[in-house]
Amino acid sequence: MNFFPLHSCFALGLLAAFVAPTSTSDEKPVLGFNQEGATHQRSLEAQLDSLLQKDHLREWMKRMAARPHHLGSAYGKENAEFIAALFRSWGFETVIEEFKVLFPSPRKRFLEMTAPEKFMARLMEPEIKEDSTSGQAGQLPIYNAFSVDGDVQGQLVYVNYGVPKDYEVLAEKGIDVNGKIVIARYGVSWRGIKPKVAAEHGAIGCLIYSDPREDGYFQGDPYPKGAWRNEFGAQRGSVVDMSLYPGDPLTPGAGATEDAKRLSIKEAPTLTKIPVLPIAYSDALPLLRALGGPVAPQDWRGALPLTYHLGPGAATVHLTVEFDWKLVRAYDVIAKIRGSERPDQWIIRGNHHDAWVFGAYDPLSALVALLEEARAVGELSKSGWRPKRTLVYAAWDGEEPGLLGSTEWVEAHDEELKKKAVLYINTDSNGRGFLSLSGSHTLEKFINQVARDVRDPEKKITVAERLRAHRIVKGSPEDRKEAKERADLRIDALGSGSDYTPFLQHLGIASLNLSYGGEDGGGSYHSIYDSFDHYKRFGDSGFDYGIALAQTTGRAVLRCANADVLPFEFTNFSSAVEQYVQEITKLIDDMREETAQKNALINDKMLEAVADPTQPYVIPRPEPPVPYLNLAPLKNALVQLQESTKQYEAANNALTTSGRHLPPEAQKSLDEILMSTERALTEDTGLPRRPWFKHQIYAPGLYTGYDVKTLPGVREAIEQRNWQEASEQVERVAKTFDQFARTIDRATTIIKSSAPSK
């Protein structure tokens, strides 16, 4: 395998320093445990490791990827029943919970170029002999779920990635997409943003293609010779507007049970406003080649053998899509081991089981790791060990169309989850390479400790050490500096795109999303070639990193299940929030400078137009200046939050170093407060124009989709130049900081008042 190049003596020395241990992991503290408890916990984790067998991962993946298993399919239900039977055999109390959700499948897909020449799009991925399942019947064809029906004809315009800034470039060049069909390439934003923005600019249809620069021969040999997307491969996917709310479009905020009250399809706000269709680059090539108009800017050009033009011009297309809008059953597998001491505190671990077609990589590569982890936990339980807290393992259905299974389960059980859920640990897919860490920053120190105690299966150093080395050698200047100087590795904030979303951003349940990857082959995503044959050649072929994932998430589950006190920590959180406040300040300063520069350019163009009226200048309106925005409430609340954090840390450290223990009742009371800290970061009224999203620190962006917006209420109001709303959101987030600080203060009081004297 290839490792990142260490080009300097410094890097080699740095890696050697990482490998040379300064102390054994057994000597290091473990959050939530005293020294004796930490020793017992590590012994339990060693037993877990000894039970893990990668042959199980290979066997289960091959079995579950044998046939298409999308939401609503017969094999999807069969897989759910297979998973449930496994859990029952391992001693878990297991049920399959059913929900009735909207899931459209295509009746008609038609794409034709009518001028300057005739071309009929293929819209299919062929069977190839090297991929044994690629010719199977029952595959969902290439389409975008939750596109509206439509039959449209019009001139074609190339819009690059189809994000808001791309339309600003088009406007500057005098190109209007109103009444036209746009073609955008995958990348930069989540796919559902592309038709959303296109419709807002008056487009009547949207095509999305996979350009080989990002996803094809520009990256490496295409499949089957190499891992990358071939000329006929296309990316299926949902285009439902999950930035408003995920889950069933017809039952926002309520579980999609049999008797649930439903919106009509026309009332559902998360469906697209225009028809959408994804295509392969073999189908995109003739369309893009036929475009006229200006040559695309350099950074808009992909890797197809043509000169990229913007249009409009001679190229006109006819697009038709029609769907079977039906309700289907989603099958969530829920398996529990009841806690011995605190059964009403739930540690929830999940991964989805549905796929667009065969889904070996997405989701089975991570699901099989979850199953092997659960099997080992079941073996520990059969040997006499019991977790203090209840373990809940979930295999979700309907994640691919829009987080349907997890969202409906969370909405159906919201009141119980608010009382009992400690945290949610999510995985989605897995490959060979580096550990990826994202989640609630109240868990940052905790998951760093976990990563410190898991060894990379190929490099034989800890996965934390390997990730630190990778960031130092490959990261941005800021990442390199932090990796060298910071004790903990910073984890990414969570936006959306997987099943943690309803837990974290709707209910305020602290969450983690974990995976390995970066050295496995790409190109099979959401295609028929996401198969067992592809994965065993180009993914984690030996399933070594599947075992590493089971070790990582298994430790996280067991430590949270067994800790004397839940392992939440707040100094890393306050550090992250301080960074977000600084980013808001910089955003305003940058906007002020950019506005001044833009208006200066507009003024120059106006002068040119006056001097030479024969030139067809398109002159945009000047931007109003950026006003003063008072961030003092936010900064003052941050200072108080940091002080509360310091007080908690001091009290907790004093208790730990003294060797004393809180009595059981105090531990339980402290746990209840710690569980509520993430809830304290939510507001019942939610974010502006999308009340489903309650969390005030993390949310997916309205125009990014998957990517996170931190302090979203403030940040997006500034980006949209809604200064009145920005001021209101500053006050709201400041109150959230205060609410969080008061919750931490309550925890500090419990420690100080309940700690036994020496």
How do the strands and helices of this protein lay out in sequence?
Blueprint: H1 9-19, H2 35-51, H3 54-64, H4 74-89, E1 93-115, E2 119-120, E3 144-145, E4 150-158, H5 164-172, E5 181-185, H6 193-200, E6 205-209, H7 212-215, E7 237-238, E8 276-279, H8 281-289, E9 316-337, E10 342-352, H9 360-382, E11 389-396, H10 404-412, H11 414-420, E12 421-426, E13 433-439, H12 444-452, H13 463-474, H14 477-485, H15 501-506, E14 510-518, H16 532-538, H17 544-562, H18 571-611, H19 632-658, H20 664-677, E15 698-700, E16 708-710, H21 712-719, H22 723-754
Parallel strand pairs: 3-7, 4-5, 5-6, 6-8, 10-11, 10-12, 12-14
Antiparallel strand pairs: 1-2, 1-9, 4-9, 9-11, 13-14, 15-16
Helix pairs in contact: 1-13, 2-9, 2-17, 3-9, 9-17, 13-14, 18-19, 19-22, 20-22, 21-22
Q: Could you characterize what this model shows?
A:
This protein is of the alpha/beta class. It folds into three domains: 9-101 and 328-562, Aminopeptidase; 106-327, 3-Layer(bba) Sandwich (Glucose Oxidase, domain 1); 571-754, Transcription Elongation Factor S-II, Chain A (Up-down Bundle). It has helices at residues 9-19, 35-51, 54-64, 74-89, 164-172, 193-200, 212-215, 281-289, 360-382, 404-412, 414-420, 444-452, 463-474, 477-485, 501-506, 532-538, 544-562, 571-611, 632-658, 664-677, 712-719, 723-754, and strands at residues 93-115, 119-120, 144-145, 150-158, 181-185, 205-209, 237-238, 276-279, 316-337, 342-352, 389-396, 421-426, 433-439, 510-518, 698-700, 708-710. Strand 15 (698-700) and strand 16 form a beta hairpin. The chain starts with 8 loop residues before the first helix and ends with a helix.
